[in-house]
Amino acid sequence: MNQNLTIKDIFIYPIKSLGGIRVEEAYVEEKGLQYDRRWMLVTPDGNFISQRKLPQLALLQVVLAQDALLVFDKRNRSKQIRIPFDSTTGKTIQVQVWDDSMDAELVGNEFDFWFSKMLGTEVLLVRMPEKTKRPVDRKYAKNGETVSFADGMPYLIIGQSSLNDLNSKVSEKITMDRFRPNVVFSGGPAFFEDQMNFIKIGDIGFSVIKPCARCVMITVDQKSGEKGKEPLKTLAAYRSKNNKVLFGQNMVAMSFGKIQVGDPLLLMD
């Protein structure tokens, strides 16, 4: 049963846990969309930092320039910094994302200083070099895929109907940026993504692997940086399985190339 499904939005999150960027098109790579979560803030001992501990990360917005990332404070755009794509000190450190350890490059002292000042705590900005291979959990990998600094999987897809369903149950409207998807599609019933196995977006194939388990991060308002109880409380009442709250589906890419807003989404099984 192929519904009339269309790609509505594509998002990338160049620096893990900072504000995401809606793009009209993006290149599908093994580790995730090009530029997606290739940079990350870590503690001085290399542990990743996210909105779970520092919700104010949501207030730092990233913009893709021609050859650099621009990062600015949503409340005061004059507080901004430019990070060239190729900026690196050439020094590597071991960093940790959940149970995974990997090599990352230190990007530069001036960036560490700026982010530390903005966040009020000492942090380092790191970049994932191409040679770093962080394997997807073997339980879920199809062809030994690797992943960026994302929590665990390279891609996340959510149907707009699923968010509409959630918003019919909460008092204040929840926006899609709470869930940090890479791909949002229109069409189909709520949670139609739960029924997908293999899909094509334009010419690019994906294997839909597993539901995405959600945490307190979805309670951070991406405009104010403040934590609340929703939508985790409402989702827990009707989207829980084995003590996990599920929203969206994780994927790996089966082929590589460009996807764009407006592409058809086809079910291949």
How would you describe the overall organization of this protein?
The structure is a single chain. The chain is mostly beta strands. It has one domain: PK beta-barrel domain-like (M1 Pyruvate Kinase, Domain 3, Beta Barrel). It has three helices and 19 strands. The chain has helices spanning 109-119, 160-167, 232-238; strands spanning 5-12, 21-23, 25-29, 32-33, 39-42, 60-64, 68-73, 76-84, 92-97, 100-106, 124-127, 155-159, 183-186, 198-201, 204-214, 240-241, 244-253, 257-260, 264-267. The strands form four sheets. A seven-stranded mixed barrel has the order 1-13-12-17-15-14-19. Strands 5-11-10-9 form a four-stranded antiparallel beta sheet. The radius of gyration is 18 Å and the shape is globular. The N and C termini lie close together (9 Å). The mean pLDDT is 97. It holds the Pfam family MOSC. InterPro entries: MoCF_Sase_C (IPR005302), MOCOS_middle (IPR005303), Pyrv_Knase-like_insert_dom_sf (IPR011037). This is MOSC domain protein.
